[in-house]
């Protein structure tokens, strides 16, 4: 019998082998077809390879994941105190939408950002924004429905749409225009199957903050085409250089908006898995859709209560995120160190980020003969023990970008970028 082996995620497997179980002949259980386009490059095959090397005693600098705890960002005192004082409150199930005090704190926070007409009843808490995205998409999409998604973008959105039977349609963010969404490209990709548009602001992986004028243009497109807007604003409290984040939902009362946010990044609580969504806009337009969200969240019973306990204290503690992004703060100084060293590398260009802790440099593909960005990332790992994610991991179509996570201490980042520069000096992809 012919043996057809496939290598994937560090494992060899035989998809066609017939296995005898007792008196019956069985074929292997295979993945559903909708899994085919799903990709997870942040913790994909290259990550698996890097972890193998780490187990062998090799020191790997992990610039693949935006996880502050990995790089010594400690638990804020506000969180510690809230846990100690209210631990007993999290023992049992809570309301399927979330704890009332947590939902009210979220409502107050989003209201402070000028989102109008919302109450705590419009708030749904989940186990991280990842789960909340699923809650938002599942009741919306029928097979073949389309959602406009930025490119580049955090791949959670495109992958989640695939998993719900939908089709992500990627609109271009223009690097030459400060990585802002291309309005003409958005308009050109709207069809009778388009149900919603995703806006990631501040953006991941570019770290760019969008201005009010651009947000208003996007709202007008949604208004004209009857689209729901998903506003992913998880980095809204990590804005630098004196700039201010504007919540998209604050600019409209007649267009339905789902605002998504959480504590993973601003308060260094990735492992707590604490995220939420807030539904705003005309209630009559979203009532049936809301019932679908209620069905899902009630089926799940409730989100992690221990994470919810800290939400009021965290949202009352704006100094923790502010202290990180002002001059002298860790994220600010790490951004500055990264930028200084990137500017010295011949064949590399980038747009300086306004927010978050990412930058998305561009490689001169002719200079370096790059045709495969995954191969570039692998070559870099081989030569420097630096792990990062290539641009294709963020649904970017060309093999010319990669993301740097700016979370290690400034001196570590400076050294890492210098090593990248040394690697690129004379590099030619084979």
Describe the fold and architecture.
There is one protein chain. With 430 residues, this protein is an alpha/beta fold. It folds into 3 domains: 5-34, no CATH class; 45-73 and 323-424, Aspartate Aminotransferase, domain 1; 77-318, Aspartate Aminotransferase, domain 2 (3-Layer(aba) Sandwich). Helix content is 35%, strand content 17%. It is built from 15 helices and 19 strands. The chain has helices at 45-55, 77-86, 100-112, 128-137, 156-163, 183-188, 212-225, 283-299, 305-309, 311-316, 319-325, 330-342, 365-368, 373-384, 410-424, and strands at 5-8, 11-14, 19-21, 24-26, 61-62, 123-126, 146-151, 167-174, 180-181, 194-200, 228-232, 257-262, 275-280, 348-349, 358-359, 362-363, 386-387, 389-390, 402-405. Strands 6-13-12-11-10-7-8-9 form an 8-stranded mixed beta sheet. Strands 15-19-18 form a 3-stranded antiparallel beta sheet. Helix 5 (156-163) links the parallel strand 7 and strand 8. The longest helix is centred in the C-terminal third of the chain and has 17 residues, at 283-299.
């Amino acid at each position: 019998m012919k043996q057809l082996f496939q290598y994937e995620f560090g494992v060899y497997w035989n998809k066609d082998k017939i296995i005898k179980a007792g008196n019956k002949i069985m074929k292997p259980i295979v993945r559903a077809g909708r899994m085919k386009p799903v990709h997870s490059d942040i913790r994909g095959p290259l990550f698996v390879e890097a972890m193998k090397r780490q187990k062998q005693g090799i020191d790997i600098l992990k610039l693949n994941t935006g996880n502050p705890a990995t790089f010594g960002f400690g638990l804020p005192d506000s969180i510690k105190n809230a846990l100690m004082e209210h631990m007993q409150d999290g023992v049992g199930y809570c309301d399927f939408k979330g704890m009332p005090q947590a939902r009210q704190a979220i409502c107050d926070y989003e209201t402070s950002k000028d989102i109008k007409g919302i109450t705590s009843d419009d708030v749904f808490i989940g186990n991280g924004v990842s789960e909340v995205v699923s809650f938002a998409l599942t009741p919306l999409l029928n097979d073949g429905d389309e959602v406009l998604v930025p490119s580049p973008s955090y791949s959670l959105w495109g992958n989640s749409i695939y998993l719900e039977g939908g089709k992500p349609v990627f609109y271009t963010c223009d690097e030459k225009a400060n990585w802002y969404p291309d309005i003409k490209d958005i308009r050109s990709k709207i069809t009778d199957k388009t149900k919603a548009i995703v806006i990631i602001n501040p953006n991941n992986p570019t770290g760019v903050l969008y201005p009010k004028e651009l947000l208003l243009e996007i709202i007008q497109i949604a208004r004209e085409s009857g689209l729901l807007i998903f506003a992913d604003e998880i980095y809204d409290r990590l804005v630098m250089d004196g700039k201010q984040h504007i919540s998209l939902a604050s600019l409209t009362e007649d267009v339905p908006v789902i605002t998504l946010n959480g504590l993973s990044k601003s308060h260094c609580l990735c492992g707590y898995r604490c995220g939420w969504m807030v539904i705003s806009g005309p209630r009559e337009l979203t009532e049936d859709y809301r019932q679908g969200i209620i069905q899902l969240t009630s089926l799940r019973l409730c989100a992690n209560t221990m994470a919810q306990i800290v939400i009021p204290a965290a949202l009352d503690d704006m100094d923790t995120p502010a202290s990180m992004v002002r001059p002298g703060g860790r994220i600010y100084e790490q951004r500055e160190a990264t930028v200084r060293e990137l500017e010295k590398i011949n064949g590399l260009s980038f747009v300086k980020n306004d927010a978050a802790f990412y930058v998305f440099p561009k490689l001169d593909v002719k200079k370096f003969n790059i045709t495969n960005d995954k191969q570039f990332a692998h070559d870099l790992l081989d030569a420097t023990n630096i792990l990062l994610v290539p641009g294709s991991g963020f649904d970017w179509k060309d093999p010319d970008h990669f993301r740097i996570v700016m979370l290690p201490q400034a001196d570590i980042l400076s050294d890492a970028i210098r090593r990248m520069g040394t690697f690129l000096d004379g590099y030619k992809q084979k």
